[in-house]
Amino acid sequence: MKFLEYTPLDRLNDFLSHANFGERTIKGCLEAYSCKHTGTDKKLSISLEHEILDYLGKSSDTDSSSPADYLLSRSSRKTLIYLVLTLYHMYPDYDFSSMRAHQFFTEESWDSFKQIFDTYMFELSKEWVVRNGGNSLLEALYKALDEVVRLSECEIYSYNPDCHVDPFLEKGSIWSFNFFFYNRKLKCVVSFRFCCVSNLVADGFLVGDACYNDDGEIFDDMDM
Questions:
Q1: Are 177 and 196 contacting, i.e. CB atoms less than 8 angstroms apart?
Q2: Cα–Cα distance, 81 to 85 (Å, whole number)
C-alpha cells in the first residue's frame, strides 16, 4: 500500500482539519492509498489470509446468511485484506491482526453514508457554505472522491471497532465514523474519518470516557 497525494483531497482536508464550535470541535481527514503491495504488505497479507481461513475453519455457524459465507470467496477476503492493510499504513504502530467481532467492516451504500454525513456534519456543512459558497460540502466531497476513485465503481465500507481498541478514538470523543471507498479496478482506496470531540474533555476541564460497547459475532453484517 502506498499513500497517494491528490489536490482535491488536500483542499477538503484543509477545511476539515479543525472547526471549533465552542465546547466541541468537528474534524475529518481523507487519505488515498494504492493497493499495490510495498514493504511488509505481502507478509501481512499472508498472515491475515491465514487468520480469516482459520476463523472459517472453526466456524460452527450453519446459518446460510452467516457473514462468514461471504469470506468463502477469495475476492471478498482480498478486499478485507486491502482494507486492513490500509489501517496498518494509517496506524503503523497498531496491531490490527488482533481484531475481533465488531472491529471489522460493514458494507454501506452512498445513501447510507449520506444519511450519516448529513446528520452529523450539518454544522460543518453550514460553515463550508459560509466560507466557500456555491456547492455544499457533500457535493464537494462527492466530486473529490469521484475524481480519485470513481464513486460509481466503488464499494463503500464503514469501520466500527470496539472503543477500547480503536486507534481512531480521540480523548473526549463524542462520536466518530470511519468510511472506506474502494475501487477494485483502480486498486485504490480512500479512507474518510470524521469525528466530534469535546473541547472541555480534550483540554482537561472534564474527565470523560465515552465508550460504547456493541456485542456481535466476528464479521457481523459484513457483505463483501
A1: no
A2: 6
166 neighbors 175 (Cβ within 8 angstroms):
no
Nearest to 189 by CA among 156, 166, 219, 140: 156
Residue 189 has pLDDT above 90, yes or no: yes
Average pLDDT over residues 114-143: 93
**Could you tell me the domains of the chain?**
2-202 (3.40.1000.50)
Contact 180, 105 (CB under 8 A): yes
pLDDT at position 15 over 80: yes
- Directed axis angle between helix 137-149 and helix 7-16, to 10°? 150
Averaged pLDDT, 131-141:
91
Q: What kind and span of H or E run contains 124?
A: helix 122-132
The half-sphere exposure of 1 on its side-chain side, counting CA atoms within 13 A, is: 26
Element at 49 (helix H, strand E)? helix 41-58
Confidence of residue 123 (pLDDT cuts 50, 70, 90): very high
Write out the three cell numbers for 121.
456534519
User: Which secondary structure element, helix H or strand E, spans residue 82, and what is its range?
Assistant: helix 74-90
pTM: 0.79
How far, in Å, CA of 193 to CA of 202, rounded?
18
